[in-house]
Design goal:
Length: 387
Amino acid sequence: MFQNFSLLIARVKNSSGKIRGAGFLVGEKFVITCAHVVKDALGLSSYEQPDSDQRLPLDFPLADQVTNSLAKVIFWSPPRPDGSGDIAGLELLENPKQSHFTSLVTAENFWGHDFQAYGFPVNHDEGVWASGVIRAKKANGWLQVEDTKVPGYQIEPGFSGSPVWNKQLMGVCGIVVAGERLPGYKAGAIIPTDVLIRSWPILGQFVLKPPICLGELYGKTYQDLINELKLYTSRSENSKQLPKDILTTGLYQLMLRNFQEAKNILKIYLGFEPTNAYGWYALALASLMDNRPKLLTRDSALLIRNHLVNALQFDKTQIHAALLLISLDIDYFKAKGFRTPSPTIAETMLIIEGGKITKSELRTLISFSVIPEGPIANLINLILSSN
């Protein structure tokens, strides 16, 4: 995930090609940066706003293929006297060749989280990495960050607009907006994702969400799992971790989309609790790795199917597992002409029809689904439209 993140960092330039700051590709065509970076690149005064026909040159220096792009400003929140604002949203005139994606992340408390950022200070057009620790919010809503190491680069002019990678949450938690200019102080400020989203709501669609009804089905919210994980990991290393602790840790990694780690932990849990249906369902989600079923290899598809069948074997009310199994059978096995053992699609449909699931749960399922369209979405909409 971090590798994908670095590929999406942009250099924002002026018309003569001089680098004025950084930015970050969100989705296929949107770039988020600081308004003062755009002002500097376009040569605007403090009170001017960019025109709709003005274009910003930029590129992605760490991408697989470095190509020059042009962007226009479609969202503008200039710096305000109270220190807020300073956000600009750009739209690329052509989609970049890279198709990588990194999620935005939010949290109530970032204190102590490790961060990494990539910027372009003076005499470093190729860019340099800075790292440190996130502190807490300031009065204007920005987050304070500090470089706690002695050698190395720090947040300074040239980092503005750079995305901030949160090591604990494995996603982008904001963009750099300022660096401390006083000698001896290795600190800076970032605009956190929740402020970015409130300012430019279109960014909300790129926030990391749990996989299919994960928190709702397990009865825990995302923050509940984080709090439980902190409690468990605060115990001494000599204390024996209970199976429930292991499940919580595995679900936490799954919510972060750290799929390989989630698989490893969930397999350990199922060694303690081999008949736990929800454990098998979670292992299927981790093995799917956010892919659509049609993109799987046959070995992977068979393995995931086996996990889902185990979930249904131990709990016939596992409607979420049944829905995912139908999607897998239709999108992969039936589409490729492979026959599947029991349960068949018809048998799985009987499980769904006989199970107990509310329309509210189904709406949540389709909103969080790793397969937001296609047969499974059609099936859910059909159930929702029936009496």
